[in-house]
Amino acid sequence: MTSLLIWTCAISVVTACACSICGVYLVAKREALISDGLGHAVLPGIIVGFLIFADRNSPWLLIFAAFTGLGMVIFFQLLRRTKLVDVDASLGIVFSAMFSGGVIISSQNLRNIHFHPECIIDGNIAAAALDTLIIGGYDLGPRTFWVMLTVLAILIFFVVLLYKEMNVMSFDELFAKGIHLHPNRIHMIWLGLVSLTTVCAFETAGSILVVALMIAPPAAAYLLSKGMLDFFIWSGLIAVVSALAGVFLGYNLDISPAGPIACCAGISFLSVALFAPKQGLISKIIKRSKQRHLLFKKIFLRAMEQNHSGRLDDSNLLWTRREQDLVVRQCLRERLVIEQNGDYIITNLGLEEATSTNFEFFK
Amino acid sequence: MLATPTAREINLLTDLFEDYTFRVVLFGTSIIGACSGGVGCFAYLRKQSLIGDVISHSSLLGIMVLFLLSYLLTGTGSKSLWILMPGALLAGTSALLLTRLLFNHTKLKSDTSLGVMLAIFFGSGVMLLRWVQRASDPVIPGRRGLNDYLFGMAAAMTTDDLWMIGSLAIAATLTLMLCWKEFKIYVFDSTFTHSIGYRTTLIDNLLLITLVIAIVIGIQAVGVVLMIALLITPASTARQWTKSLGSMVILSAMIGVFSCAVGCTISANYANMPTGPVIVLVATAIFLFSLLFAPQRGIIARALARRKYSLSIDRHQPSEEVI
Amino acid sequence: MSHKIGSEIALKIQRLTVAYDSTPALWDVSLVVPAGVVMGIVGPNGAGKSTLLKSVLGIVPKLSGEIHIGQTSASNRKNQVGYIPQKTTIDWDFPITVRELVLMGTYGTLGWFRRVGKMERKRANDAIARVEMDPYADRLIGELSGGQQQRAFLARAFVQDAPLLLMDEPFSGVDATTEKTIVGLMHQMREQGKTLLVVHHDLSTVIDYFDQITLLNREIIGTGEVSRIFNQSLLQKAYGDSSVTKHAIPSEKLDARYTDGEGNQLAD
User: Fold this and answer.
1) In chain B, which among 241-300 make CB contacts under 8 A with chain A?
2) Architecture of the A285-362 domain
3) ipTM over 0.90
4) Which of A236-250, B126-140, C1-15, C94-108 has maximum average pLDDT?
5) DSSP labels for A180-194?
C-alpha cells in the first residue's frame, strides 16, 4: 500500500466523519435536503472567493464560501417567509440559481485552473492528497487532511458544547423555545458549521459526496439508534466504513473515490434499511404479519362469540381463505375454539380472549 | 464574457437562426421548456418540488447502465436518446418508488428518504460515468460527451434526438390534457377525489409517469443537476401572476419556452457556456422580477397595499405571522 | 322542534374493524345514524375519528364489517356521501376559484375524460346561490374569510346532492364568529333533510351543536342522544382521564335542558 493511498483513506475517513456529524442533526430536524442545497450553493462562494483571494489555500476563502452557504439558507428562509412560494420549491429555486451562477463563472474564468466544472460533482481527492503541507521542512501530509481534521475538531467541540440543547431541539422545538434555548440561534450556528464543512469537503469530495455522506450514514443510524449519542456513534461508524470501502473500490476501478464512497454509503444504508433489527424493512414486515395474524384471531373470536350458531359467518370477514384457515387452525391449537360435528364452538378461554380488547397488546 | 451584442454578434445571431443544427436545438429545448414548465405546475402544487431533483439525478444511473449495455451488445456505446431514454425513465421511476417504500415502511421522514435515494442513484451514476471515462482500458467507443449529461449540452442534440424528445413530450401533453380534470381534483383534494369514485392510485401513477417523462427529456439539454430548476422555477413564477390552474400551466410553459430559447441562444453564442446553468439563470431572473412586481401578490404590490391599509385605519396592522 | 328520528337510516355500520398496518384503528364498531340528524363524533386524539369518516368514504381498507349508506351498500357511494375536509389539509394557496371548487362536486357524475358542460355549470351556480356566495364566486379560495371558505365547501357538497355529509373537524382553527356561521349552516342542511356526521374536538360545545353523539375510542363507547351519552362516566371511559372531561360538561346546563331524562330530543 502506497503512502498516497493511506493518505487518501485518511482524508476520506476524516471527511466522512465530519459530514456525518453534520448530517445527524439535519436528519433529526427533518431538514436533510438542506445539505443538498448547501452542497450546490457553496460553489459560487468558492469560485468568487478564489477570484478575490487568488489563493485556494486561504482560510478567508473558506470562511467567505461558508458565508455564501449561510446566505443560501437566509435567502431560502426569506423566500419561505413571503409565503409566495412553496417551501420545497423555494429551496430548489435558490440553490439551483446559485449553483448555475457558480458553474458559469467557473467555466468562463477558471476552466484551466483548479476548478474544472467536472470536479464540482465529485471533487478530486487524488490531487488533494498530493498537495502536502510542509512546515519547517517537515512533510506533514496533505493539507486537506489537516483542514478536515480541524473542521472535525470544531464540530465535535460544538456537539459537546450544545449536546443538551440539540438533543432537545431535534425532538421538540416548541419545548426548546419554552425553556429559552434560542433554537433559531443554535440552528443558524449549526447550519453555519454545516456550510463550513461543505466548503472544506468540496474540493476533496465534490457536491455529490458531501450530500451522500451527510444523509446516508445518519439515515442508517436513525434506524439503529435510540438516543442522540447512539445516533452520532452509529452515523460516524457507518461513514468510516463506507469511506474505507469506497476508497478501495475506487482504487480497484481506477477512478476518483468520491462516486464509490457515495455508492458504498448508499449500499450500507440499504443494508441497514433492510436488515436493521427493529426498524428494518424485513423485521417490520415480519412483525407486521405477526400482528395482523393476532388481529385476525381476535376478529375471528369476536365473530364466534357473537354468533351462537357455531358456524363461522364469513360474510363480514374480508380476508382470504388462506388467512381464515390459518387463524382457525391456530385457535384450534390454542383451544380457543373446538370443533364439533363440523361446527366450531368457542370455549370459555376463547370467550375471555374475545372480550378483552387490550390495544397495548398490539403495539 | 457577457457584453452588449456588437453588430458582428448580431450578424452571428441571424446566421445562427439560419443554421439547421441550431434550429433543431432551439426547437428541442423549447419543447423541453414547455413540457417541464407545464408538468412542473402539478409537482409544485402537490408540494413535491424536490422529488423532481431526485428523479433527474437518478436518471444518470439509468443512462449509464443503458450506455454500457449498448456497448456490451454492439461494441460501441450509443448516445442515441432512443436507447438511453428508457433507462432514464426506468431509473427515475424506480428511485421514486424506492423513496415511497422507505417513507411508507420505515420511520424515515420524506426528506431523508428522498436524500438517501438521490445519494445512492446519483452516486452510482457518477461512479459508472467515471469508470467509463477513466484513462485505462477498456476504452469504450462513444464515451466522449457523456459528461454533458451533468450540466447539459443542448448543442449535442440531433434530429433523431429531437424526434424522441418530441414524441415523449406529446405523450406527456396528451396525458395532461386528457386527464386534466382528474389531475386537478386529485392534486387539490385527494380524499375527496377518492370519495366520489375515482381510482386515485391510477391518477397518482399517471401523474408520476408524466412527471418522470417531463424530467428525463430535458436532461440532455439541461443536465441532471439543474433539471429541477426548469421544473419548478417557471411554475413558481407563473403562480405569482395567475388565478386558475389552466392559466398557470400555460404561462409556466411559456416561461419555460422563453428561458430555454434565450438560454440556448446565449450558450450557442459564447464559448464555454454550459446550456443548463444559463437557462436556469434566465428563468430565475424572470422569477425574481415576478416576485417583486406581480400585481396583488407581488412584494411591492403587497407593501403598497399594506401601507395604504395602515394609513386608512391609522394604526398598525395586527401581525400576520403566528409561528 | 323534533325530527322523525328512527324512521329512516342514513348510515349503518356493522362490526367494522379497520387497521393501519397492524394496530387496529377501529375495533368492532357498529353504529346507526338516523336520517336528518347532526351527529358528532367525539373522542381523544388517535381514537379513530377521522378513520371512521375515511372508511365511510371507502378510503381505508376494512378488515371486517359492512357499511350501508342509505339503502345502498357502501361500494356504490358515488354521490351518496359529501365530504368537507379538515381546514388544515387544504392548500389554500391553490389557484382555484369558488366556482371551480363547487364544480368539482359534479366530477363524480361525470367520470373519466368527460368535461364540464352547461348542465354542470348551472348546478354549480345554483349551489353557490344557495349558500349566498354569488358575489364571491370568482374569488380565489385563499382570498375568502374562514366562514366563506366553509360555505364554498358546503356548496360543493350541495352540488353532489348527497344525503349524507361528512365533516372533519369543521371548527378547528376558525374564530368564534365563523364557528357560529358554520353551525348555522349545519343546522340549515339538517332542515333540508340532510344527515351530518361531524368529527368534533371541543367537548364544551357538544350539547349546543349536536342532536346525537358517538363517543369513540377505537371502540364505540356510547352512541345515541346527547342527553343519554354525554355524561361523566362514559366520557371518562372514552378519555381514560378525568381531568380532560371534568369541566367539559356544564352540569347545570344539562339538567336544565333535559329535565325529562332519557330519550328526549335536543331542543334547538
Assistant:
1) 272-274, 276-278, 280-281, 284, 287, 291, 297, 299
2) Orthogonal Bundle (1.10)
3) no
4) A236-250
5) T--HHHHHHHHHHHH
Mean of the pLDDT values across residues A27-31? 84
What is the interface size between B and C, counted as CB pairs within 8 Å? 68
Our CA-based measurement puts residue B193 at a distance from the nearest CA of chain C, in whole angstroms, of: 8
From the number of C-beta atoms within 10 Å of its C-beta (0-12, 13-18, 19+), residue B39 rates as: buried
Would you call C30 an interface residue with chain A, using a CB distance cutoff of 8 Å? no
Q: Per residue, what are the HEC states of B113-149? A: HHHHHHHHHHHHHHHHHHHHHCCCCCCCCCCCCCCHH
Q: Are A20 and A200 in contact (CB under 8 A)?
A: no
Which residues in chain B are closer than 8 Å to C78, comparing Cβ atoms?
196-197
d(CA C38, CA C198): 7
Distance, in Å, from the CA atom of B154 to the CA atom of B177, rounded to the nearest integer, reads 28
Which residue, C8, B116, C89, is CA-closest to A214? B116
E strand or H helix that includes residue C32: strand C23-34
Residues 6 or more apart whose Cβ sits within 8 Å of residue C147: C174, C177, C178, C181, C182
Give CA–CA dist C38/C33, Å, rounded: 9
Residue with cell 351527529: C39
Whether residue C15 is predicted with pLDDT greater than 60 in this model: the reply is yes
- Please give the residue range of the domain that contains residue B211: 7-312
How many folded domains does chain B comprise? 1
The pTM for the full model equals 0.85
Cα angle: A57, vertex A44, A93; to 5 degrees: 150
The model's pLDDT over B173-182, given as tens digits with 9 standing for 90+, comes to 999 999 998 9
Cell of A315: 360474510
What is the reported pLDDT for C242? 55
Is CATH 1.10.3470.10 correct for A3-279? yes
**B130 falls within a domain:** yes
Question: In whole angstroms, what is the distance from residue B227 CA to residue B206 CA?
Answer: 20
Domain ranges of chain A: 3-279, 285-362
Pairwise CA distance, residues A349 & C125, whole Å: 62
CB–CB contact A291 C17 (8 Å) = no
Mutation for testing the B interface, residue in A104, A105, A120, A224 having most B CBs under 10 Å:
A104
> How near does any CA of chain A get to the CA of C268, in Å?
38
Cβ-defined contact of A363 to C23 (cutoff 8 Å): yes
Name which residue leads in pLDDT, B10 or B209: B209
pLDDT at C236: 77
Q: pLDDT (tens digit, 9 = 90+) per residue, B11-64?
A: 666 666 677 888 888 899 999 999 999 999 999 998 888 899 999 999 999 999
Q: In whole angstroms, give the CA distance from residue B265 to residue B270.
A: 9
Element containing residue C19 per DSSP (H, E) = strand C9-20
Torsion angle (degrees, nearest 10) of CA B114, B116, B122, B124: -150
Measured CA distances, C210 to A240, C183, C198, C202, C237 (Å):
62, 9, 9, 12, 20
